[in-house]
Design goal:
Number of domains: 2
Largest sheet: 6 strands, antiparallel
Number of strands: 8
Shape: globular
Mean pLDDT: 95
Strand order of the largest sheet: 1-6-2-3-4-5
Distance between the termini: 18 Å
Length: 329
């Protein structure tokens, strides 16, 4: 994205914590928001446990410093703030990242249309498997859908759900996810910028792209991805069905937890901590009550597989329309 839009990215790295703090303050005092890499498990507003063997370094936008607090933009609609000590500790979590900081120039407007076209073509390549990382094409795009559906039904393959998630604890992990490791529901509904596997966000992008590129057909394609978003939601509801109360309660808790963070930010910390405790309790209940060979779980996997196939079919049609809309390279 940076290259395609002609953006100049300036990076600063250091092994010295005082210099790292100074680099960030200097950028902000110049009126330039900065991106820093910080451990999500160390930032207090994320409501994640501080575990010695787990970390996740992610880019975070820092837009102000008031002498005591750094002010951040990170998914919530409310402004977030952390102390200098808290942010420095999160940035120091992985030494090889060297307190990395990046600032960016404005994009070149004349490059926007072609950049958008290139982004869409790259997305199509990922669906087709051509743009997947070497050796992992079977896990991306249409091939990934097929493999996922097959692994739910297969019982002999070493990558099958029956082999990888042989008990209730593993099954709960796969379907819902735990604090430190997302499962189907968390990945699709609460992890990204939006819910429904970000298909609604992508549809918004396509509607904007239609205006930027003067290709009205792209706006029509957006409606197909909105349909796919609805199917993604049904897929996640089949992963945590009402027929298994502990799973449906987990669904409600996970959605509520995300809503509180998005809408209220740090002011909802107490409520989010309570939800996290409830989710941990549900994981324990599920571990003892979810029998992978039970009739209820068999039906769950059947319905989940059917919904994966529906998403596959809908998105294959949507991507074909996208190819027609964008035209040849």
């Amino acid at each position: 994205m940076v290259e395609r839009l002609g953006i100049i990215q300036e990076n600063k790295e250091t092994t010295d914590s005082k210099r790292a703090h100074a680099n960030l303050v200097e950028a902000l005092e110049d009126g330039t928001p900065a991106v820093v890499w910080a451990d999500m498990f160390s930032l207090p507003y994320t409501n994640l446990p501080s575990l010695p063997n787990i970390w996740a370094m992610m880019p975070v936008a820092v837009h102000a410093w008031d002498g005591q607090w750094f002010h951040l933009a990170d998914r919530s609609r409310k402004p977030l703030k952390v102390s200098a000590e808290e942010l420095l500790a999160a940035r120091a979590r992985v030494k090889k990242d060297r307190f990395r900081l990046a600032t960016f120039s404005p994009p070149e407007a004349k490059k926007l249309s072609e950049a958008v076209a290139s982004d869409i073509r790259q997305c199509i390549d990922l669906y087709d498997g051509e743009g997947a990382p070497r050796g992992h094409a079977a896990s991306f795009g249409f091939s990934g859908f097929t493999k996922w559906a097959d692994m739910l039904e297969d019982t002999r393959n070493k990558e099958s759900w029956a082999r990888v998630f042989p008990d209730g604890a593993g099954l709960f992990q796969a379907l819902a996810g735990r604090t430190a490791q997302p499962g189907v529901f968390i990945w699709v509904m609460t992890w990204g910028a939006g819910h429904d596997a970000d298909r609604g966000v992508f549809a918004d992008f396509l509607e904007e792209a239609a205006e930027i590129m003067k290709k009205p057909a792209l706006a029509k394609t957006a409606s197909q991805f909105r349909h796919a978003a609805d199917l993604w939601r049904k897929l996640t509801e089949s992963a945590l069905p009402a027929s298994i109360p502990v799973l449906r309660e987990t669904l409600d808790l996970l959605l509520r937890q995300r809503e509180l963070f998005i809408e209220k930010g740090q002011s909802a910390m107490d409520a989010r901590r309570e939800i996290r405790a409830q989710l941990e309790n549900n994981a324990k209940l599920a571990a003892g009550s979810l029998g992978p060979s039970s009739e209820a779980v068999r039906r769950l996997k059947e319905e989940l597989r059917e919904n994966i196939v529906k998403v596959h079919d809908a998105e294959r049609a949507a991507v074909h329309a996208l190819q027609q809309s964008i035209g040849a390279r």
